[in-house]
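TOPIC: backbone geometry
CONTENTS: sequence, structure tokens:
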Amino acid sequence: MRHVIALDVGGTGMKAALVGASGELLHQARRATGRERGPDAVVEGILDFAAELRAYGARHLGEPASAAGVAVPGIVDAEHGIAAYAANLGWRDVPLRALLTDRLDGLPVALGHDVRTGGLAEGRIGAGQGADRFLFVPLGTGIAGAIGIAGRVEAGAHGIAGEIGHIVVRPGGIPCPCGQQGCLERYASAAAVSEAWAAVCGDPDADAADCAKAVESGDQRAAQVWQAAIETLADGLITALTLLDPRIVIIGGGLAEAGETLFTPLRDAVRQRVTFQKPPTIVPAALGDTAGCLGAGLLAWDLLTTTDGTEVTR
């Protein structure tokens, strides 16, 4: 069966899959990055994992993979196939595409940014399927974004498009590691909500999920923390809507697991802020933690398709 290799490399773990032509996951695997052994060990682990997946596909699916796609965090130069910088993994200017192509005996390899790659999957085959313009916003430790345009994700001139978490929504506010003050992710990320709720409830181990449960049980302190995060998130989204005019906003990440406890008040808050803008449909992400792998698979399949949609045989 024809398939591609897909790798989604995170700060602590790697998810991988063999992906069929229709986006089906034919085989899945996970392993640690081994980052405690240093950046060279992480790169070698990625290469070994990809080679093992290729061998598995050849044995169990009747033929070797046709291409490979890999999604990595940090700053990515997708055009030149370079993983430029990732603080969590400790690497700089790793020519990952060339290294993978060499390890995989000349197989074509696509390299992408993890959030944009996950956004690509959500836009094409997930919650944004069929939308010509979408914005994917995962709410996790920070807040990232992916701008979807006509079936692709915009990287920007320097590979940093979509960094909605660093829109300043509270000028002069909480310092952000990026060097600014008052960034959106310092108020509305899952990490920010966890920090705020832990301070209010007095439990240092309390997190955003605990805050959401307290909101649902009627705790007014939790409701205040939660609503403050939603109001700030809505402020950031209005800026994004004004600039990008997406048809759909897809919210993912840990905070989205609160379901309608998040989405109902967030839709209301955005609606209250709209003036001339057209309010988008705001929906939860559909693919969960498989989005990165599926997106990496889409990048790989794109290598095998010409601009007119004709499939390339390799």
Remarks:
- Residues 19 and 309 are 19 Å apart (CA to CA).
- The chain is about 40% helix and 20% strand.
- Residues 220-244 form the longest helix (25 residues).
